[in-house]
Amino acid sequence: MNVLVTGGAGYIGSHACDALLNAGHEVTILDNLSRGHAKAVEILRGRGAGRVRFIAGDMGDTKVLDQAFAQPVDAVMHFAAFANVGESAVHPERYYQNNVGAMVPLVDALRRHRVSRIVYSSSCSVYGQPPDHLIPLQESAPLGPMSAYGRTKLIGEQLLQDHVGAARAEGREVALTCLRYFNVAGSEPAGELGEDHDPEMHLVPVVLRTAMGLQHRLKLFGDDYPTPDGTCVRDYVHVCDIASAHVRSLDAVLPGTTAMLNLGLGRGISNREIVEAARRVTGKPIEVDIAPRRPGDPARLFADTAQARSRLGWSPRFTELEQIIETAWKWLAAHPRGYRG
Q1: Domains in the chain, start-ordered, CATH in brackets?
Q2: What residue spans of 84-218 are helical by DSSP H?
Q3: Which of 202, 237, 224, 226 is nearest to 300 (CA)?
Q4: 311-333 pLDDT, tens per residue?
Q5: Is the pLDDT of residue 285 over 80?
Q6: Phi and psi of 178, rounded to 5°?
């Protein structure tokens, strides 16, 4: 297949492109590089042996979309979204413009070019703060996002579901997969593609940056939660396993079918466990300060992944926390300044 990957120069998108190439597909990357990296595109081009096409531009720009669809597109994977909950609280307008507004021309292009397979990179944020008795979370849990980011991801799901319905009314069947994943971490074992955000807000790279001395003491928000060690419990999944699920969706979810699927390890890992595992992997002391809880942080949040395992034939390859952290540490040790180094 020729797969158009929006946001394919970003952290998760670049790993998905690599997985697509390994599966024998051709890839068209559409990315404005505002948060993606030209170096990641260069790496993918080197691996793709002529199977990678790159288009620099916004997915909300119809002229750019015309370039992207100039060659027949069999499937679209959509990663091009802003994904910082805190930023979305300060600048919700950016999130609605990019995550929702820019999707409208993309969906119109999907209709005009009769694309039959869509894989949407969604988020567990669509669930909001579920009651404790619903953990581990199933896909049937109530949807109640608590952030502008989460609301835009849910609207994106709904927009694509409406597109599927409209296509059916025209006599076309479209396969739609929305993958709701939890905390993503790690890097590909080869150590060339990795996680590089500015600023970095995700716990695993922040912990490892502290271990490397790139920032001062680590701050954990809250140690008085009703969890075994008092810190928040979350589900972590390796970025290569996320990429694998996206690729599997292309064949496993058939036209005329819609799938909303949770991705994760299916178990909770506490913030303290992350720190302890990072100490073991790096051999470095990591000094921790405890800060007050952040408003809206649930005590526990992790996935029931039975549906993804059943429908996609998918299961995580990186099942141990140390495995995930080791790959992230390998990349950071080689790229302390990110792709710039």
Answers
A1: 2-340 (3.40.50.720)
A2: 85-90, 92-95, 103-112, 148-169, 203-212
A3: 226
A4: 999 999 999 999 999 999 999 99
A5: yes
A6: -110, 115
pLDDT value at 296 more than 80: no
Neighbours of 243 (CB within 10 A): 24
Structure tokens at 207: 């912990």
* Token output for 168: 């059916």
Instruction: Tally the C-alpha atoms within 13 A of residue 38's C-alpha that lie toward its C-beta.
Output: 3
In this structure, are residues 4 and 73 in contact, taking their beta carbons and an 8 Å threshold? yes
- CA-to-CA distance for 125 and 110, rounded, in angstroms? 25
Residue 67 burial (C-beta neighbours within 10 Å; 0-12, 13-18, 19+): middle
| pLDDT number for residue 23 | 98
CA dist 334 and 299 (Å) reads 34
Tens digits of residue pLDDT in 243-276:
999 999 999 999 999 999 999 999 999 999 999 9
Contact by Cβ (8 Å): 225, 232: yes
Three-state secondary structure call for residue 295: coil
The answer, yes or no, to whether the previous bond of 199 is cis (omega within 30 of 0) is yes
Contact of 30 with 70, CB cutoff 8 Å: no
Q: Of 244, 246, 243, 260, which is closest to residue 138 (Cα–Cα)?
A: 260
Q: What pLDDT shows up at residue 6?
A: 98
Give the C-alpha separation, 20 to 246, whole Å. 9
Q: What is the pTM of this model?
A: 0.96
Residues annotated as catalytic are 149
Residue 339 is given by DSSP the state: G
